[in-house]
Structure formats: C-alpha cells, structure tokens
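Practice record 12: protein with magnesium ion.
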Amino acid sequence: MATDDKHSLITENGIPRHIAIIMDGNGRWAEKRFMPRAFGHQAGVKAVRKIVEHCAELGVEVLTLFAFSSENWHRPKEEVSLLMSLFVETLQREIDTLDKNGICVRFIGDRSAFPVVLQEKILEGEAQTKDNKALTLVIAANYGGHWDMCQAVQRVVDKMTIGELSKQPISPGLIKEHLSTADLPDPDFFIRTGGEERVSNFLLWQLAYTELYFTTTLWPDFDQNSLDDAINSFKSRQRRFGHTGEQILNKTALL
Ligand code: IPE
Ligand code: IPE
Ligand code: MG
C-alpha cells in the first residue's frame, strides 16, 4: 500500500493512484423504471463490482467508495434497514472473490452505529483481505468528513493528555496522521455520479487538491466506459498544487 504524505502523483501511464467516488443516483435510477428504491440499490451493487474490477485492471492503487454517509440515517427507516441488509449480504457474497483477486478491503467511518452482524462482517472481511496488494478498496460507511476531522483531533488531544504525544502546535501533518485514511495517499481524482455537484461531507480534508469530476450518469449505469471517459478527463488536466503552469511543464516544481 502506498504511504506518502506528499501529493499523490499519477502513475506513469496517467492513471490516478487513488480514485474516490460518490455513488449517487440509485434511487432515481429505480424511480425512472417505476421500481422501488431498493431495486436501484441492488443495481448499484452490480456497478460496484464492475468498477472495482476495472480499477484493478487499470492499476489504480486505492478506490474509495462512499456507501453510506453519516447523514443517510435521516432516510426512512425501511430504506436504512434495507441498505444494512444489502451491505451484509454483499460482503458475505463478494468477499472470497475480492480476496481471490488480491483486493484489500477496509472500511472508514463510525462502524459502532451499525448492527452487530454488519460490524462482524466488516472485521472478518478486513482480516481476510488485509495482506492483499492488487487494489485497496476503501468503503466509506457511516462516514462523514466532519466525523473524520473530529475523531482525528480527539485522538491528538487524548494522546497529548496522557503524554503519548508531546504538546505541540496542531499542524496539517498531525491531523493527517490521525485521519481514518492516514496511511493512504490523498485522492487524485473524485467522481460523483447522479448529477449533483456537491461533496456531501465526503473526504473533506483529503479532497484539498483532488481533481473533481461530476457526471449526470446515474450510479447503476456507470460502467467501464464511463470510468474510462472520466479518467480521460483527468488525464487532460494539469495539476499545479499552487505552482505556475510553467513550473509544472519545466518540472521545476517540488511536488
Ligand atoms: C446513492 O444513491 C446511494 C446511497 C446514498 C446509499 P441514492 O439513494 O442517494 O439515489 P438518489 O440520489 O436518491 O437517486
Ligand atoms: C451521498 O449521497 C452519500 C452516498 C452516496 C453514500 P446522498 O444522496 O446522500 O447525498 P445528498 O444528500 O443528495 O447530498
Ligand atoms: Mg442521492
């Protein structure tokens, strides 16, 4: 797994090392078909499978998928409980295949709010796949960017209180080391399907210099070709990280 605290640079062939996706539009996809929203979430799982496989083929190192936000508890309780069951079933059904394909699965977010059976599946899945190296699949579940920053600051304060960490000014590096994604490069590329152009409390800290891409394609329709189109847009961009375009072209920028 990649560990650096510099800007994550693209791989040699221009593929982003870390892609983060807000998989939005399942409900509308189902409604368009006069079907219940549950049908859209089930179709969404199929799209996840295709995109995970394609990312592994492309040599993406980390794929972070927003599966359930800390605000999604506000949905009708039937939909929340359907999503919980779907997470358990999907993990149960897919984990061996993911493992066989060398995919390391991990979760970020406050899992303590989940049903115990889901917490167990999460722990089992993480343990089973922890040494896999092909692709790290990060599932953001009961995740919120505000939660992540709060838990990071809380851990820093706790460590300082018991003397595990010396008293020091809070720095970006210190916060980053305590985020749920501490050992991962920040996302190079962010994709949101479903047409909304907002971040919805996803990786707020980590997206500081991420390239953003919004598409009206609804998540269940987002396939390998859609991902290729998105990556082509990424490849056409010049990432400057505050430097001038000329510094980047002349490779005199220290990234
Ligand atoms: C995203 O699709 C899936 C989750 C939030 C779990 P939505 O369910 O938000 O679909 P729309 O936005 O209502 O179409
Ligand atoms: C964001 O989608 C969360 C996930 C995809 C899991 P939402 O559909 O919940 O976002 P908002 O509420 O429209 O911003
Ligand atoms: Mg939505």
